[in-house]
Design goal:
Elements (H helix, E strand, L loop, with lengths): L7 E2 L2 H6 L1 E5 L16 H15 L2 E5 L13 E4 L12 H9 L8 H8 L1 H10 L8 E3 L16 E5 L9 E3 L2 H13 L4 E5 L4 E10 L2 E4 L3 E3 L10 H4 L12 E3 L3 H18 L4 E9 L4 E9 L8 H7 L5 H15 L8 E2 L3
Parallel strand pairs: 2-3, 2-4
Antiparallel strand pairs: 1-15, 5-8, 6-7, 6-8, 9-10, 9-11, 9-13, 11-12, 13-14
Helix pairs in contact: 2-10
Length: about 350
């Protein structure tokens, strides 16, 4: 059930014996915002300090060169997912898998198809989950022309980017075609969807004491639902940089039941992974709930969705991070002691 508390503790022996590498662009940062990546640098610093506060022996690295050869670590947390080239999120997991070194997240093949918004929609629809209409425009692929699905406005965005980089809402196919061409020149495949200014809902799923642990779903409720947040806004590079995302727990029991049912169908196709969010679009007028995308190894900052969802169960940020790491270590055979579940 969504509202259960299923977090895990790390055995003291594991904390004493294991060396954990945090591999992230800003793993060595001082906690300030970055001129290009904004609050992502704050997030990486917070995660490093949280891991150490849990009692883990943490070493840090901020480039792929750190894992070209097998590093002196027992387990790696790879967050280098914007490496400046297409599908860069798969490189560190592939290198670590080549070394036989366990890491947080998901296998490279699962990470690859879930980061591909088109493929994740194909899988969701195959699993019987209602899915937003879409169209894929790959570089060098067969270009399908204007969408056959009904639309008044279109969302045009990279097929495998994060934090809304490169996204644009357009009113005509001519505008859409021009933005597709620009994104292609920038080296990105493109996905096109109908623009539906309704409610975005995230269903966080993390590793817990009993495998997949569905955290309470969170609805994004901005003052202006017609406004599409930019990359600069999500990274706090513009506007009010101190405000938090307008997130609220989903209280409606029927909607929560639908989300849980859809989540279980998606998990049957994508598990195992260690943490992520299933993203849906909800129409309160009709009750329609449609899958949009999945974000594995997404933002674990205390101000973001997963941590704020866990907080509604009384699970603080450190406890959540410890549970995610403990689950990953256990599923990959690094914990020899019996796991310790935190009592509700």
């Amino acid at each position: 059930m969504i509202n259960q508390r299923e977090s895990m503790r790390l055995p003291a022996a594991a904390k004493a014996d294991l060396t954990i590498m945090l591999l992230a662009k800003h793993a060595c940062s001082d906690g300030g915002k970055d001129a290009l990546d904004g609050n992502h640098a704050v997030y990486h610093h917070e995660l490093r300090e949280t891991l150490r506060a849990i009692g883990l022996n943490v070493v840090v690295a901020d480039s792929y060169e750190a894992v070209i050869a097998r590093p002196e670590a027992d387990f790696v947390i790879p967050l280098l997912n914007r490496g400046g080239f297409q599908n860069s999120e798969m490189l560190a997991p592939l290198l670590l898998q080549r070394h036989g070194l366990p890491f947080l997240g998901a296998s490279p093949i699962v990470r690859g198809f879930t980061d591909d918004k088109h493929l994740s929609k194909v899988v969701a629809r195959h699993a019987g989950v209602p899915t937003m209409d879409w169209q894929i425009h790959r570089i060098g692929g067969l270009q399908p022309g204007a969408p056959a699905f009904a639309w008044e406005r279109l969302v045009v965005k990279p097929n495998a980017s994060s934090a809304s980089w490169g996204i644009r809402v357009v009113d005509s196919w001519a505008e859409a075609h021009a933005h597709i061409a620009w994104l292609h020149r920038e080296g990105h495949d493109v996905i096109v969807e109908p623009w539906v200014p309704l409610i975005d809902i995230a269903l966080p799923v993390v590793g817990g004491a009993n495998g997949p642990w569905m955290l309470p779903p969170m609805a994004y409720l901005p003052e202006d639902p017609t406004h599409l947040r930019s990359y600069e806004e999500k990274r706090a590079l513009t506007g009010d940089t101190s405000s938090e995302d307008p997130l609220s727990p989903v209280e409606d029991p029927l909607l929560r039941q639908m989300l849980e049912a859809h989540g279980r169908r998606l998990l049957a196709e994508m598990w195992p992974f260690d943490y992520g969010r299933f993203e849906f679009r909800f129409d309160p007028a009709t009750g329609a709930l449609r899958f949009m995308e999945v974000n594995l190894s997404c933002n674990l900052w205390s101000k973001k969705t997963i941590s704020r969802s866990a907080a509604t169960l009384g699970v603080d940020h450190a406890e959540l991070v410890e549970s995610i790491v403990a689950h990953s270590l256990e599923r990959q055979g690094l914990l020899t002691d019996r796991r310790e579940s935190i009592a509700a």
